Amino acid sequence: MNHSDKIAADKTSLGFEFQDFVYIEKLIDLRPEQTLGLELHDDIHVETATDDASIKDLLLIQVKHSVDPGNVTDRDIDLWKTIHNWLKLVPGLPPYRTLTFQLYTNKSLNNQAFVSLLKAPRQNIQAIIEHIKNTDQEISAAESKKKPDESPNPLAKYVKSVSKASDEELKFIFERFEFHSDNSSIITRISSALRQLSIPKSRVEDTAKYVIGAFKQSKFSRIVKGEKVVITFDDFRTEMGFDRIVRSARAEPADFDRFVDIYYSYERPDTLSFNNSKFHDQLKDIGISDEEIVDRGVEMILAEQFMESLRDAGSFSASENSRLENKAVSDWQLLHNQSHRSTKEDDEAAHQQASLGCYDQTMRTPLKAGDIELPINLSCGKYIKLSNLPRIGWRKNWQSKFKK
Fold it and tell me: Could you report the per-residue pLDDT of 28-48, keeping only the tens digit for each?
């Protein structure tokens, strides 16, 4: 294969990739009653079913990609080849109620005669048919003047084929014809479709990659099994995991470090008091100062407000928060057992010392959400909340004394 052949192969491959991306764009827009096929009735087809599962609407899409987009012209081979293909395709289509033919191209539409007529085909049927006949005559005349060793015009066979169709056949096509011309990046259009599903801007690029990967894997698997690439709304949303991908993308990763800024920017009211709280009683009992108790109380209320904001943003669910608190109880339980392993309740001085040790060690033990270590003030706030319920305590006999 010479260099030119390699370039041609690359362009062909790019065309297939473009077709896949257009298919993905259509998947994102798919409705529950619709099915999307690849290279079955056409490059891409969309079936919309009725309640009895018959085909209400059938959309056939020919996808044409050009490395150098330019314009769709009157002598564009992709345009004529598409019309030729549709004429051959019609007799083998399944029953339907309505049918649409769409030429999906990354080229722009110029203002030449044939293209202009096709921009509003239903109003220009007769003029379109006449233009087809005239184009065939012009190309045939030019071909007849060529010398035997000159290469034929590759457009000629498609124009000839289209011109031989009956007026009724041509009318059938062009009454249902639509251009879809868009020279913007297909990746940009996929990203735009995802943004309309409330995917945060910061997560769109990664989400697009996940969706593309899910489709490629599904397509490969179906082809290997000898199956047709026909995907329903439920296939896409559930089997290919699109709903899961969207849910994950909408949930911004929890930024726990932001709590540090919240904590140090908080302005405490002068009258702030936690005298009527369980955690206050537990800390006062082991000799913690009033000032430190207020510090712990501030950590508790800010931690709860912060965790609630994460839940509202979808960054950290209620079940994840519950799991975090259960892990905190487990961590505390180990420290509590170690601190009071040899404590005798009748030796108040030793008991007090062990209780303080349990408290201090717990406050120095940061919690983890998955692999992420929480800021120490946030961890302290969670432990203090648990002592306020109370689910944890510092004395050996904390339950009998405070859990009432």
Answer: 999 999 999 999 999 999 999
What is the domain count for the chain?
A: 2
Q: How far is CA 178 from CA 82, 89, 111, 121, 205, in A?
A: 12, 17, 16, 8, 31
Nearest to 238 by CA among 32, 377, 57: 32
Q: What angle do CA 56, 58, 61 make, to 5 degrees?
A: 165
Q: Which of 206, 223, 250 is the last residue of a domain?
A: 250
Structure-block tokens of residue 150: 């000159």
Taking the complete model, does pTM exceed 0.90, yes or no? Answer: no
Please identify, among 250, 268, 290, the residue that sits at the C-terminal boundary of a domain: 250
Whether 183 contacts 172, CB under 8 Å: no
Helix (H, G, I), strand (E, B) or coil at 239: helix
Pairing of strands 55-64, 44-49: antiparallel
Kindly report, residue by residue over 90-137, the tens digit of the pLDDT: 999 999 999 999 999 999 999 999 999 999 999 999 999 999 999 999
